[in-house]
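Key idea: predict the complex, not the pieces.
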Amino acid sequence: MTKYNWLIKDVRQIQGVIREAVRVATGGRPGPVLVDIPKDIQTARTEYNPQAPVRGPLPAVRQMPEPDAKAIEKLIEAMERAERPVILAGAGIIKAGASAELAQFARHAQIPVINTLLGMGGFPGTDPLFLGMPGMHGTAYANFALCECDLLINLGARFDDRVTGKVSSFCLKAVIVHVDIDAAEIGKRVKTHIPILGNVRDVLRSLNQQVRPVERRAWIGQVEAWKRDYPLQYGWDGSVKPQYVIEQIQEITGGDALFATGVGQHQMWAAQFLRFNEPRAFVSSGGLGTMGFGLPASIGAKFGRPDKEVWLIDGDGSFAMTLVELATAAMYNVPVRAVILNNAFLGMVRQWQELFFGKRYSHSHYPTNPDFAKIAEGYGVKGFSVRDVDQVRSVLEQAADHDGPVVMDFHVNPEENVWPMVPAGAGNDEMQLAPPAPESAR
Amino acid sequence: MEMTGAQIAIEELKAGGVEIAFGIPGGAIMPFYDDLLKANFKHILTRHEQGAAHMADGYARVSGKVALVVATSGPGATNLITGLLTAQMDSVPLIAVTGQVSTPM
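Result:
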């Protein structure tokens, strides 16, 4: 559950344990730590000298060795041979503070960049080389690029199953390079031809000193054609479409804000339709997929970056799980703009039931959802309820100008699905671009 | 200088660059909360420990800094679990301090 934890049994241990706890949490591959302190130890007294030496760091936080120069040389050779290279950039780029190094590398070597869900913002979403998200709900062009590439350079991503799809059909034509700070991740799910253990920023700096500029007209042209011919899209029928709401948020903010999400369809649409200008702007539970993460995470985000506007893009299911924290937003007047894309369903469950369980909607419907705007008002938070597509823009603008927390309950089309989609257990080459039923084709 | 265990923990957290805590007090963590107040440590009182953990998580993801999460024993600690595992799966740093019954118990 944690990266490390301690139970303190003697007050004299406290200084060393807390110092180590900070180092373990923040060092190497970061993670949560827990220190359990019995009540009598909290009140017990002992001599405290802040300068006292405490024992050395745990192995987990020892300095990363320099990346292997021979492995980097192999990567450069592979890049010189490659005709269709692709970068898969994960959260490691953001955690290592390597965004500038990545941008330099990709532009210099002319390699298109795919960002994982948690890697969003690690590469500018507006760059022509940006291909969006891969995998289950990735862009068509990212998945085409994965299927066709002859060199895949994974920079700090862990080959999550939502990215790879069926591993036996993942990137079959490619030499696979994996740069990771955690040796346990390399080769765990995908056979890796060139493993590079190290901090991805060190690796990129070394690469940037050695890589020669190249032109890849044919490959870049192919990728641009895919982007032109298979863009993200959705149908227009007069109802409030969730993707439209997100597009309007993108327009109003210009992408210059922090965005938190819950988990589900809305999370995928946010990853697809927002354009992140910078790292550390997208706050979303990827690995665990924790519904209810969004509202509290957005409040924490505002404390972490009080200079930035914070938007929450949530679903009605996720929001209801932790909405009690509206009380916290009200108490500290945290100006979070909470957008609920309310379809009165556990939308991703409903989508899977529609597509893979014969439209048997077993217990995924919330026909008596509360009035979230009224709930907000009950907490002393400004609330809006929107059912008309013509009101979307004006409510978002009013919320953006409000100087306190605000909840916007958008009643969106409940039948909207997330496309493209790679069905669970299928390969990325089996991606479905659009709904199979002709009447809802877009 | 002689200090309580809770005071030492807070001093070491401050020295480690921790600037904010999210949490809820309860029986087994009250001495720690008393010293948080005396140390004038910034603390955000939440309504559920899961919320506190997710707030610390959101804080860390956008700032690159690490926050403290505080909860009491029993249900306070178990309510943290989803938040801790969320952070673990996404490699997000946070430091949880939980109260525990006294050592003779």
